[in-house]
């Protein structure tokens, strides 16, 4: 088990915050996944992961930067590039998906108007209904 020796010598100042950040990042990602599954409308479902993916990924990448910086096994450039890529692309992709959904809804034909005898059309067509106000009597 010589591969685990460098993790056994991990200082507490790096191990404890990294563990907390990993738990926090995983919890935030889980909340985003639950929002994707449980919310009823498309725009609500896309909002959960769009917000949480950036924060959850950032927590996990900061934990990785802490661990590998404490071990000095390699520079932290990889995590910085991944963070830059996620911070630039995740909001743009979410926005483009939402715009595509809006564009698709705008291209749908409008729903048929309810007929006068429909239960949803309580008042019917007001232009075709006779007026209920009595006409004033004519003056002789």
How are the SSEs placed, and which strands pair?
Layout: H1 5-8, H2 12-38, H3 42-71, H4 77-107
Helix pairs in contact: 2-3, 3-4
- How much of the sequence lies in strands comes to under 5%
Tertiary shape: elongated
Nearest-angstrom radius of gyration?
30 Å
Secondary-structure element order, N to C: HHHH
Mean pLDDT: 78
What structural keywords apply?
140 residues, mainly alpha
Question: What report would you give on this structure?
Answer:
- The chain is built from 4 helices and no strands.
- It is mostly helical and 140 residues long.
- It has one domain.
- The protein is elongated and about 110 Å long.
Give a nutshell description of this structure.
The chain has 140 residues and is mainly alpha-helical. The chain has one domain (9-107).
């Amino acid at each position: 088990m010589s591969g685990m020796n460098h993790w056994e010598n991990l200082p507490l100042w790096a191990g404890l915050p990294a563990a907390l950040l990993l738990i926090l990042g995983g919890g935030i990602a889980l909340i985003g996944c639950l929002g994707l599954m449980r919310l009823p409308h498309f725009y609500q479902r896309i909002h959960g992961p769009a917000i949480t993916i950036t924060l959850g990924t950032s927590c996990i990448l900061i934990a990785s930067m802490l661990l590998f910086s404490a071990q000095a096994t390699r520079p932290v450039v990889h995590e910085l590039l991944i963070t830059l890529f996620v911070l630039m692309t995740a909001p743009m992709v979410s926005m483009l998906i939402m715009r595509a959904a809006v564009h698709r809804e705008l291209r749908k034909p409008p729903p048929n108007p309810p007929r006068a005898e429909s239960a949803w059309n309580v008042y019917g067509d007001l232009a075709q209904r006779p007026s209920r106000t009595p006409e004033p009597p004519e003056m002789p």
